[in-house]
Amino acid sequence: MAFAQLESETVRVETDVEQVLTGLQVGLDGARGTCCWCGRELYDGHYVTVYAYRTAGHDQWNLPRVYCRECNGGNIETPTLGTAEVVATAFLGVLQVAASQTTRLVLTGVEVEEYSGLDEGSEV
Questions:
Q1: Which of 6, 9, 11, 22 gets the most CB atoms within 10 Å of its CB?
Q2: Structurally, how many domains does the chain consist of?
């Protein structure tokens, strides 16, 4: 069993983007999301395209855009320097949180379609 103490050092783990995005929450609390292009409601089992990014110096990935299968708006047209950007396809799944007795809509089966690293692109 592993545990960390407050005075301990930060531990860094390297993994692939697919694993990091798997389980990332889509939309607000609850088990539904919305396509950012057409407004269609998205539920468990829907196939989606997502745009996610992470800025330099931060570990947290942000998921500002989710597209339904029909809209499929994913590509990185102009990469931003200092930002890791990803366009990926995934299925939506429901994560049940027993402690709070809530559900969340999350990404599952993530496959990266396009990636732009921190050192690629131009300044905004």
A1: 22
A2: 1
8 Å CB contact between 119 and 79: no
The CA radius of gyration of the chain, in Å to the nearest whole number, is: 16
Contact 81, 119 (CB under 8 A): yes
Q: What is the largest CA-CA distance in the chain?
A: 50
Mapped onto helix, strand or coil, the DSSP state of residue 74 is coil
Question: pLDDT for 76-85, tens place per residue?
Answer: 777 788 888 9
- How far, in Å, are 12, 79, 81, 89, 117 from residue 26 at the CA level? 25, 23, 25, 13, 23
Q: Is residue 85 included in any domain, yes or no?
A: yes
Q: Which residues pair with 95 in a beta bridge?
A: 104
Domain extent for 29: 17-116
Is 122 contained in some domain?
Answer: no
CA dist., res. 101 & res. 116, Å (int): 37
